[in-house]
Amino acid sequence: MRSRHHHPTQTETAPIKTYKIATIPGDGIGKEVVPAGQEVLAALAASSKTFQFNFENFDWLANPIGTFWSVVMLLEHLGENAAARQVMAAIEAVTANPSLHTGDLGGKATTVQVTKAVCDFLGGQQQEGQARAA
Predict the structure, then answer these.
(1) Of 11, 44, 59, which marks where a domain is finished?
(2) Which domain holds residue 27?
(3) CA–CA gap between residue 118 and residue 106 (Å, rounded)
(4) What are phi and psi of 6, to 5 degrees?
(5) pLDDT (tens digit, 9 = 90+) per residue, 69-128?
(6) Cβ–Cβ < 8 Å for 88, 96
(7) Predicted confidence (pLDDT) per residue in 36-54, tens digit
(8) Statement to judge: residues 42 and 69 lie in one domain
(9) How many CB atoms lie within 10 A of CB 99?
(10) What secondary structure letter does DSSP report for 58?
(11) How many Cβ atoms are within 10 Å of 45's Cβ, its own excluded?
(12) How many distinct structural domains can be found in the chain?
């Protein structure tokens, strides 16, 4: 009696799965990292022969706000709630300024400019906090 499950023989090949991945290289912080990651995934796919990757590269400026929001969650997890509130205040202040919007928000700011603005905001808060403590 023949089995219900068909197992491909060596002469038959199963279809290769294709995974589509969109990439946005980081502005000043990873333009060489994304291609390196793609190279590793391509090597992995070549060795597996069961899947492949189709990369679509977008030359947009990356918005780092999501990364900063992850910092907020990390700080909350560590119990550093005051620090988490400081970073969140910086995010809110920077995103409220249209001149600091990256391309995904309709602006022209770079990742470096947005990061600097957040850091500058935090630096100003630290100085105010030290002045109050004195």
Answers:
(1) 59
(2) 1-59
(3) 19
(4) -90, 125
(5) 989 999 999 999 999 999 999 999 999 999 999 888 889 998 889 999 999 999 886 444
(6) no
(7) 878 888 888 888 888 888 9
(8) no
(9) 10
(10) -
(11) 17
(12) 2
Q: What is the pLDDT of residue 112?
A: 85
More confident residue, 96 or 16: 96
- What DSSP line would sit under 24-40, residue for residue? ---TTT-TTHHHHHHHH
CA–CA dist 56, 20 (Å, integer): 7
Same domain (yes/no): 43, 75: no
**Residue 54 and residue 19 in contact, taking contact as beta carbons nearer than 8 Å:** yes
Per-residue pLDDT tens digits for 63-72: 888 889 989 9
pTM of the predicted model as reported, rounded to 2 decimal places? 0.55
User: 59, 81, 109: which is the final residue of a domain?
Assistant: 59
**Tens digit of pLDDT for each residue in 24-36?**
766 555 666 778 8
Q: Rounded to 5 degrees, what are φ and ψ at 75?
A: -60, -40
**Burial class of 88 by CB neighbour count within 10 A (0 to 12, 13 to 18, 19+):** middle
The one-letter amino acid code at 49 reads: K
Tokens coding 9: 């023989």
With b for 16 or more beta-carbon neighbours within 10 A and e for fewer, the 68-84 pattern comes to: beebbeebeeeeeeebb
The first and second tokens of residue 129, run together, are: 């906090």
